[in-house]
Amino acid sequence: YQGLANAGYPNMMACYGPQAPTAFCNGPSSAEYQGDYIVACLEYMRERGLTRIEPTAEAEEAWRAKCVALGDATLFPKAASWYMGANIPGKTREMLMYAGGLPAYLQELSESASRGYAGYTLS
Q: What is the DSSP annotation of 14-26?
């Protein structure tokens, strides 16, 4: 979810992953913004006595669908490239990155944070 976390792996967040704009922007910049989001999330949790975070399966699927839709609006689906997973025989071809651009991605993160990290289950 958001290129940061996966359902089934609570408390595990990673920067510079698939379904983020990582391949379409400067790597250190992307990792820095993602790191800032993760730190802000951890601070939010600490302030509220929360110890567990995990994306919901529904949010994860909605994010995947958004990444696929953004990719489908480009020429990427017409090429057999790793952006579409075509480098792995038998793999379903779909956009592996968030193709909406870094500013739109940052807006997505900001909106999630402003709604109490919407898309995640916190406890």
A: -SS-TTSSGGGS-
For the whole prediction, is pTM greater than 0.85? yes
Is 1 exposed, middle or buried, given 0-12, 13-18 or 19+ CB atoms closer than 10 A? buried
Residues 76-101: tens digit of each pLDDT: 999 999 999 999 999 999 999 999 99
What's the Rg (C-alpha) of the chain?
15
Q: Residues with Cβ < 8 Å from 40, sequence gap 6 or more?
A: 113
One-character DSSP codes across 48-109: TT---EEE-HHHHHHHHHHHHHHHHTSSGGGS-SGGGTTTSTT------S-TT-HHHHHHHH
What is the per-residue pLDDT for 2?
98
Q: How far apart are CA 12 and CA 112, in angstroms?
A: 17
CA pair distance 17, 4, nearest whole angstrom: 6
